[in-house]
């Protein structure tokens, strides 16, 4: 059919060109197939098998999924912990980094240095971050020490108390991730269309009204991007609780990814781990789709 | 012509990808040929250097084979081993620890008397019970290069400063409490409470005289004697207040770190750390004694690490020979005389004590002798690592008084004892 619309000569050229192109992209394609498609497909298959590390693999249908939902004592708490973390972390992180970007947007002295300072936790290895936070938060640490010498008040054992431990994981994560979102918002704020801002000024918009009616809507694509990415990373949270609280006390801060890790690499139940990973994937996809659906109502794109 | 080019390009790129991949595969070592890969954990450059020296000994004994050493830190080693087992890439000669074996038996070949003969291993030359270390339910999966048990370590300076009685061979749990109480001040605790499986269970097992698992591998966490002893252990923090509560479930080496950093006067840890504690960084005078004795004596576990052969190893005979030379007299003498660990081979054991500074030698020898005189192989269930993973973060709640030890053990028993 396409041959009818093109001259044969062009068709031959295009064909040979696309063949050559295929030759050039084939290393990348092979890599993609080997390291992305195969593992993804394999993990779907694994989810339907009782798949020990070594030995007989048996097909069990939906048993792994049923087991997770009805029989696994840690699955629901892990899911709950992940949601609690995301619900606390995403709004706090987005709002605080936006406020930070706004306050560093005005031409204050040393804002470049301040931006670097706020960005440092993002590039510092998490191990170092966690070490510092642990030293602050443990009962013999700085926070409790200061509180006792200044006010004579004994603070709770933050990382060992079920409620406080989650708060501290969220707090550390917010501190750690602040700089990244701030950078996104800063870039958006730098690119506000002068004409719109000027027109608003002439119309008498200032202060809060200016921010709420002009700046926020104009930067809404960035806010959308940041909140989606932050939400996804929050659902996949692992390192912070793993290293700061070890998922404890009990399973009070164990997120779903740590649950998956334990099932797969500590207990060698790869089938169960794969099934849990696909449940997480489904949740993330559904939440991202919902956010994309809702964006029509509040995200304004400049055309 | 062009088609030829494309085909060549495709083949070349495919070959590139495939060789990249299969290079990883051959590295993993169970491939045939004369190469034998030895996979072992090593946490530091010292560890790696010591392993290299042992591999060099094995290489000299087997000039026709090419022996390659692969290492990973302790924690990563077992994660990597899981993946290697799953992908059929387990190294022919792989390191294993008594506490971890039950989760990995599927990857290791059972060693018969014939296998041991091929390796040149004469079991009588090893210490009593040494072959139990890497056995599971009566089957031998590996031969240990070292053996270990748990000891009480103390900070002699702290005890002298507070006038606390010094732990000695034959001491009881009453003596232990007296020392811990006397050594507790505002500046430091009398005892560093344990988080690791071996560390926290050592005193309850010694006090109760029973293990939390029966010999046949059934879980027995709710054995009344063990529950009582474990409850007593938790109350060292909550009731007797001779130990500080753990600050986070990720502090898996809490008690030992408290001790080695001079925050606690005593801690329980394995014989493998004896040398490390003797020349500790803060520079205090360290001492050691066996675990205290309860009404039922002072039961300890014999632990250790060694090497086993991968089940899917293509060249089992060569692998056995390498295993044999890694445990030869020369290699064991090397481990012992470098003071790295207490060898499983009887003739090499005295060299370990000789490697220690003269002022510690008698004390260490006495403590080891007494501690190893009352040991039992560790009984584990097939899902032991799950139980350990479950209990550890719960201990934080126990030590902080939010949960009772009895409840934790009951929950674990009902969850994993089926």
UniProtKB/TrEMBL annotation, chain A:
Keywords: Cell membrane, Membrane, Sugar transport, Transmembrane, Transmembrane helix, Transport. Residues 79-291 form the ABC transmembrane type-1 domain. The keyword Transmembrane helix applies. InterPro entries: ABC_transporter_permease, MetI-like, MetI-like_sf. GO terms for biological process: transmembrane transport. One of its GO terms (cellular component) is plasma membrane. Its main location: membrane. It is a multi-pass membrane protein. It is found in: Cell membrane. The chain crosses the membrane at residues 21-49, 83-104, 116-136, 164-185, 218-239, 270-290. CDD domains: TM_PBP2 (cd06261). The keyword Membrane applies. PROSITE patterns: ABC_TM1 (PS50928). Belongs to the binding-protein-dependent transport system permease family. This is Multiple sugar transport system permease protein. It comes from Microterricola viridarii.
From TrEMBL, chain B:
Its main location: other. The keyword Transport applies. Pfam families: SBP_bac_1. The keyword Transport applies. Keywords: Signal, Transport. Residues 1-23 form the signal peptide. It is found in: Cell envelope. Gene3D superfamilies: Periplasmic binding protein-like II. SUPFAM superfamilies: Periplasmic binding protein-like II. Belongs to the bacterial solute-binding protein 1 family. PANTHER family: ARABINOSE-BINDING PROTEIN-RELATED (PTHR43649), SN-GLYCEROL-3-PHOSPHATE-BINDING PERIPLASMIC PROTEIN UGPB (PTHR43649:SF31). This is ABC transporter substrate-binding protein.
